[in-house]
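[job 4471] stage=fold_predict status=RUNNING
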Amino acid sequence: MADAAETLARRFEVMRPHLDEFQRRLWLGAEAAELGPGGVAVVAEATGVAADTVRRGREEAGGGRRRGRAGRAGRAGGASGPRPVTGSWSRRWRR
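[job 4471] inference complete, writing structure tokens
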């Protein structure tokens, strides 16, 4: 596992500047899942990231949590599709 930790630390240093927070968590979580039992501790130690962050990434990578808006966020009333064109708007653009 020491070899795995060293290579993981080198890969993380290369990838870190190119990843946003979600991508970083996802990548760390996937690495921990790949290592199996004890993977969270190995990844956390090798990268200097909190074990809770790695666990959260592992859950997200496994489909435990979805990223995105909450249930009722967005347009009021839950309307879907394009907004209807009003008469005043269409008259304005017909000229």
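[job 4471] summary: DSSP finds five helices and no strands in the chain.
[job 4471] exit 0
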